[in-house]
Amino acid sequence: MTLEYDASWLRELQPAPRMDDDDGCPPPLPDEAYAKETAGNVMRFPSGGRAEQSADKPKLRVWSYDDMLALDDPEWLIEGVIAKKSSALLFGKSNAFKTFLSIDMACAVATGSSWQGARAGNPSRVVYVATEGSRGVAKQRIPGWMDAHQVPQDLRRNIVVVPDEVMLDRTEWVDALIEVGRSLPELPTLVLVDIFGASMSGPETVHETATAWVRNVNRIMRELECAVLTVAHTGWADETRARMHTHFWGSFDTRLKAEGDKARLTTVLTVDRHKDADSTGKWGFQLDVVSTPTGGATLVPRLDSDVETAPKAKTPRGSQKPEVALQALSEALIENGRVITGQNYPTRPVVSLAEWKAMCGRHGITSSDKPDALKKAFERASEKLINAGLVRQFDNNVWKVNADV
């Protein structure tokens, strides 16, 4: 039985204004019109229940104490690395081999292989969102991994690539990604987003973008019942965290840090944090050059106990400035890079000196706010990099001699 509470009597609590008072308010409604107007505001009291408004409202779940105790224990997607139905971040500087590590994890999950000795469960579906370098991921890196691990052909089809930017701060893009997951023969257990900076339409340093992005990633995990692994670059001048708004940074259930040595083709992966598990774990990898099915070559991580995993000693701040400037150039090339046709230019993107300098300022190459301080710090650092042969300049444009991995 549902009792209805008529709220129309509330009208009597407000005396009707005199018609000759011009107070800017409309005259009161006639009784019949007022009754119709208030009909939508009737409060309904189901017998024995709490008050419910007739208008639609969110439905919230409530866990009692007994419900809390009965919750399932977290399960690992990759033991000790990524939990099922969780959000994870893999971050590191350029040339830390982040993409190769993420492909290694994604393919292990897809094929049911152990990940460097850690259990990765049964074969399952994986969606790889390649916002950058999608052709290399699809044509070389994934097939090269499959060949190197001698994976049967039927299991190779468990991973699919979305070769486009997907704006995870916009509902319509998230709808489309969820539709991709639901179109697979089974729901995916992992969605991998590579790379973070190209997965949103708004600025990554703005709170509104962060709030929408985090909410939508949670929605993907909930509706597809999967884990989401995101790959990101480190901060401008802070190598201990990814470049992103604090709300992004704090939202991940797991954070993994990659530190690579391009010259030695090695990288170290460290568990930076697990929210709900012991935050330990460190692995050293050698990157092996392997052939692809189409005659190309790629890199595949191999666990190697000879790779040094101890943290390197920190260098003084002053000597880090060329390194900060080089990282800033990588970020500037990602954000503003363009190809210029000409005899003296490379076939890859370049940026202007002004764009590089501005990015150095954003990376904190100097602690001073004075324009002259930025100018001097940039000139010293850029000159060292150019003289060392790491950066090349023509006219007012620059580029890295060795492209980022």
Outline the structure in words:
The structure is a single chain. Helix content is 32%, strand content 21%. It is α/β, with parallel strands linked by helices and 405 residues long.
Summarize the entry for a quick read.
The chain is of the alpha/beta class and 405 residues long. The protein has helices at residues 31-38, 65-70, 98-111, 134-148, 153-156, 171-183, 207-224, 246-251, 317-336, 353-362, 371-387; strands at 2-5, 43-46, 52-53, 76-78, 82-83, 87-92, 126-130, 159-162, 190-194, 227-233, 254-261, 266-274, 282-291, 297-303, 351-352, 391-394, 397-400.
Known CATH architecture of the largest domain: 3-Layer(aba) Sandwich
Query: Helices and strands: which structural class?
Result: alpha/beta
**For the record, what CATH class of the largest domain applies?**
Alpha Beta
Individual helix count? 11
Q: What is the CATH T-level topology of the largest domain?
A: Rossmann fold
Fraction of residues in helices?
Answer: 25-40%
Tell me the count of domains. 3
Major beta sheet, strand line-up: 8-7-9-10-6-11-12-13-14
CATH homologous superfamily classification of the largest domain: P-loop containing nucleotide triphosphate hydrolases
Distance between the termini: 68 Å
Q: What is the CA-atom radius of gyration, in angstroms?
A: 28 Å
The poorly predicted ranges are 1-5, 7-11, 13-24, 38-53
Let me know the largest β-sheet. Answer: 9 strands, mixed
Strand content: 15-25%
The succession of helices and strands, N to C, reads: EHEEHEEEHEHHEHEHEHEEEEHEHHEE
Anisotropy-based shape: globular
Number of strands: 17
Mean pLDDT level: 84
